[in-house]
Amino acid sequence: MTDVRRAIQAATAVAASLHLPAHEAIVLHNSNKLALRLTPCDVFARVAPVGQEVARFEIELAQRLAEVGSPVCPLEPRVEPRMYTRDGFAVTLWTYCEPVAPRVSPADYATALRRLHVGMREVDVPSPMFTDRITEAEDVVADPQRSPELRPADRAFLGDRLATLRGSIAGRGAGVQLLHGEPHPGNVLSTGNGPLFIDFETCCRGPVEFDLAHVPEAVCAHYPGVDHGLLDECRQLVIAMIAAWRWELGDQFPHGRRFGEECLRLLREGPPWPALDTITERLALGR
Question: Mind listing the pLDDT tens digit for each residue in 162-218?
């Protein structure tokens, strides 16, 4: 909580220095990055410790995508579009979009994601491969100092599963393009201008099925040309990567250990592989 308070103070101080009145900060989401609504200026602020963010890349990409008409949340137009630092925190400022519905319909979600993918094919920016994210997860699993609470048997099982999935997905030879990386419902805003995507720091290159593995199952039914065999493998991969990250020392994800345990259970149980929102809802209901 001390870090959250300091992050809020940093965001409100940055806003005030830019003549944006920020007397109150409403926490919209808190995991490894803090998302705030600052009022009365009505700014959407994203805050992370300096060194644990890729804010410059995210800002540049969001600007480039907006230029080609992609459905992305715009940056705050009243200030210079850049990363601001205060008290060890990196702060980026975006337009706050008032939600118009609790959820985006599956058809609208799929249409927006397809538009995003089309726009991403027009944007040429250096970006890692999705396999680099697998490597990050493997590094967490392989190092007991980074994941001290992960049991030895689970460590061996998870490391083997990540390596196997890396090989089987790469062996399919699917085409790759720039992806959002984590287009799950928490990164989609329901606005008067339709669904808009946020949080581009996880962008990578890979098959579109890797992005689709993060969205609700009903959304995939409206996305054209899906390779369902590849989608199943990507869903399993996403579950395995999330299992790794939830065991990392210092992970801030709410109820992270429970999520990590559930992911391990699902991997051992086998198919069918559930979508992430299904796992979240099960945990929320205590199933």
Answer: 999 999 999 999 999 999 999 999 899 999 989 999 999 899 999 999 999 999 999
To which residue do tokens 């689709």 refer? 212
Query: What is the residue type of 14?
Result: V
Burial class, 203, CB count within 10 angstroms (exposed 0-12 / middle 13-18 / buried 19+):
buried
pTM value is 0.92
Gap between the terminal Cα atoms of the chain: 28
Report the candidate in 239, 245, 287 with the shortest Cα–Cα distance to residue 266.
239
Close Cβ partners of 263 (under 8 Å, ≥ 6 residues apart):
239, 240, 242, 243, 246, 279
Please tell me the number of Cα atoms within 13 Å of 56 on its side-chain side.
Answer: 4
Tens of pLDDT, residue by residue over 35-70, are 999 999 999 999 998 875 678 889 999 999 999 999
